[in-house]
Amino acid sequence: MGYYDESGVWVEGEPETEGGGYDSGWDAPGETVYDHSWDTGGFEDGVHAYEALAVDGGVVEFEFVDPPTLSGDTISYSYKTKDRKKAQAGAVVAQIAVLKGDNELIGGGSNKLKTDLGPNDTGASSIRPQNYTSADGDYTITITIGNDIRTVKYRIQAGSISAR
């Protein structure tokens, strides 16, 4: 488990993240739950399948509400549960892969809920691509929720990030 720091050096552990979630409550009328956490557990071992547990003990699935978009130095996206189920904290929402311009996998992980996500709630997550890649070049981040794979292509040049 690791990431590339701002100078392009591989660092063991998880990058520092900003923000956090809050308890959405069961009867929330559709609050947004922000979750900036991610975990690389299992990704480097080739484990890409996951099941998230619903509060009722069944399996819960997620779907995109807003697709991943690059704004400034952050990629943000939102999601909700399918079939109006309540998802438990710790449920894996998305798998994340970071690739160089030549499609070489250089990092990734998963996004997990910090708090329960109610049946009427919308969750939101963000990723700072420069936590994975700081060297100049072209990159792609794929974010997969269920069977829905979305990509964001970007370029890092002289420390600045832009869409490509």
How would you portray this structure in words?
This protein has 164 residues and is mainly beta. It has one domain. 0% of the residues lie in helices and 48% in strands. The protein contains no helices and 13 strands. The chain has strands spanning 2-4, 10-12, 32-35, 52-53, 59-60, 62-71, 74-81, 92-100, 105-112, 122-127, 137-145, 148-157, 160-163. Strands 9-8-11-12-13 form a 5-stranded antiparallel β-sheet, with no helix packed on it. Strands 3-10-7-6 form a 4-stranded mixed β-sheet, with no helix packed on it. It has a two-stranded antiparallel sheet with strand order 1-2. A hairpin with a 2-residue loop joins strand 6 and strand 7. It is elongated, with a radius of gyration of 16 Å.
Shape: elongated
Number of strands: 13
**Order of strands across the main sheet:** 9-8-11-12-13
Task: Bin the helical content.
Answer: under 10%
Largest sheet: 5 strands, antiparallel
What's the helix-strand series?
EEEEEEEEEEEEE
Rounded mean pLDDT is 75
Poorly predicted regions are: 13-38, 40-49
Distance between the termini: 28 Å
The secondary structure category is: mainly beta
Percent strand equals over 45%
How large is the radius of gyration? 16 Å
Can you count the helices?
0
Search tags:
about 160 residues, four-stranded mixed beta sheet, about 0% helix, about 50% strand
Q: What's the arrangement of secondary structure elements?
A:
Elements: E1 2-4, E2 10-12, E3 32-35, E4 52-53, E5 59-60, E6 62-71, E7 74-81, E8 92-100, E9 105-112, E10 122-127, E11 137-145, E12 148-157, E13 160-163
Parallel strand pairs: 3-10
Antiparallel strand pairs: 1-2, 4-5, 6-7, 7-10, 8-9, 8-11, 11-12, 12-13
